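HUMAN: I'm a chemist; might I ask for a sequence paired with its structure tokens?

ASSISTANT:
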Amino acid sequence: MNWLIVFVGGGIGSVLRFGIGKLIPFKGLSFPWATFLSNFLACLIFVVALIAIQKSPKNEWIQPLVLVGICGGFSTFSTFSFENYQLFQSGSYGILSLNVFVSLILGFGSFWVVKTL
């Protein structure tokens, strides 16, 4: 049953990611907002779901649906890496550094902030 739950969650996450990419397309030399937003929101969703699981372990279906499926389909390390490679190739080192640094800080920070509330 968990396979089906992950499958459904992955589909939901992938459609969300696709939608954000269509709403905020990457222009090559600009900041990759869609990937940044997808990854940041996936971190927030992940930590909120993790807390919900810890508070109510009876809801075992949340982990495969949300943590593995939705967050796995919604966040995108491969696109993050590719867009950073494009920024590197174009010499946009400032935007590249900003994207990597802010993405890591906000991803880590979202876990820290939500877990300390």
The chain has five helices and no strands. Residues 2-116 form one domain. The radius of gyration is 15 Å.
